[in-house]
Amino acid sequence: MFEYFAEDAPREGETFNEAMTLMVGSMNDVLAEHIDVAGARRYVDVGGGQGTMLRAVLRRNPGLHGVLFDLAQALTDVHEDLRTGELAGRCGVVPGDGLESVPQGGDIYQMRTVLHMWDDDTCVRLLRNRARAAAPGARTLVIDQLLDTERPQPMTTPMDLQMFLIAGGRERSEEEFAALFERAGLTFTRVARTPVLLHIVEAAVPAP
Ligand SMILES: C[S@@+](CC[C@H](N)C(=O)[O-])C[C@H]1O[C@@H](n2cnc3c(N)ncnc32)[C@H](O)[C@@H]1O
Fold first, then answer.
1. Residue 7 Cα distances to 72, 96, 98, angstroms
2. DSSP β-ladder status, 199-204 and 108-112
3. What is the pLDDT of residues 72-90, one digit of tens each?
4. Considering all CA atoms of the chain, what is the largest pairwise distance in Å, rounded to the nearest integer?
5. What is the chain's mean pLDDT, rounded?
6. Which residues line ligand 1 (CB under 6 A)?
7. Per-residue CA distances from 141 to 23, 50, 79, 200 (Å)
8. Which one is catalytic: 65, 79, 116, 199?
9. Please, which residues have CB within 8 angstroms of residue 49's CB and are 6 or more apart in sequence?
10. Which residue, judged by its Cα, is nearest atom 4 of ligand 1?
11. How many angstroms separate the alpha carbon of residue 208 from the centre of ligand 1?
12. Is the dihedral of CA 50, 53, 58, 59 positive or negative?
């Protein structure tokens, strides 16, 4: 889908980016309230799109520096506060492919509604790159819906099917995320449940 946007359909790609911001962007402030950045200096948003979630985290945490990382085609309409506005001095915008590598040296790596686009093997590839990019103790925050495998859920179950049909991806349960982390060499640490649709599943780079 992203190759199609880049090579054949840039206008549709822009519409996709705008839609993501509209759809999940309304949850930015609530999610940012549930993110504890204590001790962190460099916060990397992998697949961060137009950057509105990173903006919410940086506005809430004045000591933090951010890196917005995404495919080049997704960075054409980054939120103005991050490019030239009040947060530009403490935010870098870096194009790249997370399936090849991610920016080095982050204390926290966030991925919001990114892993659900992909099958397990592709997620593990991204998470391994992420594990290699930072020191022991660096944290990964996966922000996604949490699938209840015992009973259908009004939003998450249809989204699970939709992700499978359009991108070969899926929604996952807490246990399924923990298994992905283990395959990628990360240690599952906890889940922060929020009052909105998305929750925060956390892992860390283990000590060598
Ligand atoms: C569903 S959108 C979520 C955007 C953003 N995280 C948010 O919550 O608003 C998925 C994002 O992953 C990005 N993406 C897809 N493949 C990627 C890759 N290989 N490396 C880095 N980012 C990628 C897309 O460009 C898109 O911005």
1. 12, 16, 18
2. unpaired
3. 999 999 999 999 999 999 9
4. 47
5. 95
6. 2, 20-21, 24, 47-49, 53, 70-71, 74, 97-99, 112-114
7. 19, 18, 21, 6
8. 116
9. 17, 20, 21, 70, 74
10. 49
11. 30
12. positive
Residue-wise pLDDT for 115-144, tens only, equals 999 999 999 999 999 989 889 999 999 999
Structure tokens given for 123: 């997620």
Taking the C-alpha atoms of residue 4 and residue 186, their distance in angstroms, rounded to an integer, is: 32
Kindly report, residue by residue over 149-191, the tens digit of the pLDDT. Answer: 899 899 999 999 999 998 899 999 999 999 999 999 999 999 9
pLDDT of residue 208: 81
Total-model pTM: 0.95
For residue 157 the two structure tokens come to 């179950």
Question: Amino acid identity of 167?
Answer: A
* Residue whose tokens read 């940012």: 32
**Which residues make beta-bridge pairs with 44?**
67, 109
199 assigned to active site:
no
In whole angstroms, what is the distance from residue 187 CA to residue 30 CA? 25
Flag whether pLDDT at 58 surpasses 90.
yes
Atom of ligand 1 nearest to the CA of 52: 9
CA–CA gap between residue 165 and residue 36 (Å, rounded): 34
**Distance from the CA of 206 to the center of ligand 1, in angstroms?**
26
Task: Measure the CA–CA gap between 19 and 13, rounded to whole angstroms.
Answer: 10
| 150 CB-contact burial (10 Å; exposed 0-12 / middle 13-18 / buried 19+) | exposed
